Amino acid sequence: MNRIEEFKKQAAFKAVEQIASGMVIGLGTGSTAKYAVERIGELYQIGELKGIVGIPSSVQTEKLALAVGLPLTTFETHPVIDINIDGADEVDVQLNLIKGGGGALLREKVIAQASRRNVIIVDETKISDQLGTNWALPIEVVPFAGPSEKRFLEELGAKVTIRKNDDGSLFKTDQNNLILDADFGPMTDPAGLAAQLDNRAGIAGQGLFIGLTREVIIAGGDGIRHMTR
After folding, report:
1. Can you give the residue range of the structural domain that contains 168?
2. Nearest to 96, CA basis, from 226, 218, 225, 229
3. 203 — pLDDT class (breaks 50, 70, 90)
4. Whole-model pTM?
5. Are residues 168 and 67 in the same domain?
6. Are 105 and 143 in contact (CB under 8 A)?
7. CATH number where 78 lies
8. Average pLDDT of 115-140?
9. Are residues 157 and 116 in the same domain?
10. Is 132 part of any domain?
11. Active site residues
12. What does DSSP say about strands 137-141 and 97-98: parallel, antiparallel, or unpaired?
């Protein structure tokens, strides 16, 4: 395991320490969140966590949770989540996020908004002064609106790429939508941009998570640190 993967695992394990028996848990998607899901499943199997249930943010995470023996639930049964543990692609100093590198941004935001507490886990490379410095913004669009929304984003100044799989086919989300990766560069007003994007009928979801996070756990060469607001 390389150093970055070890940092991801350290952050994930630290976050899982905050889970108590009986909780409803939001299960994130991505290369960092997977370590949290695996750890939660391990603690459940050995009896250290009892009576917990998870709501997965993607089909991928659902499969992983079932593989590690973690019981799952739905919003119909549990409309409120006690704690959500998820990763992020980029985090700014106000704890706003860019998410969606794994393509699960819509369900991830639904879970974040339904959670009493969101704990974000990252390695130290994900922190930046301004969102957009190191990561393009993933935007989920319905296929019918793809060309129109791509043009709209370009008019806002973004360099837009339609996300594809390794074999060259179009990437499809769990909702069967497309992902446009929009590179705006460093963002001076991410909240304003988020509002503009949310007004577009063809945009099903966008990866700016503004004001949803109060705690970030960061693992790096100097150990684990917390950012809170």
Report:
1. 137-204
2. 229
3. very high
4. 0.95
5. no
6. no
7. 3.40.50.1360
8. 97
9. no
10. no
11. 108
12. unpaired
What does the pLDDT average to over 91-102?
A: 97
Do 95 and 149 belong to one domain? no
Is pLDDT above 80 for 1? no
Same structural domain, 113 and 157: no
User: How far apart (Å, rounded) are the C-alpha atoms in residues 206 and 181?
Assistant: 10
CATH number of the domain that 163 lies in? 3.30.70.260
**In percent, how much of the chain has pLDDT > 70?**
100
Based on the domain organization, do 72 and 164 belong to the same domain?
A: no
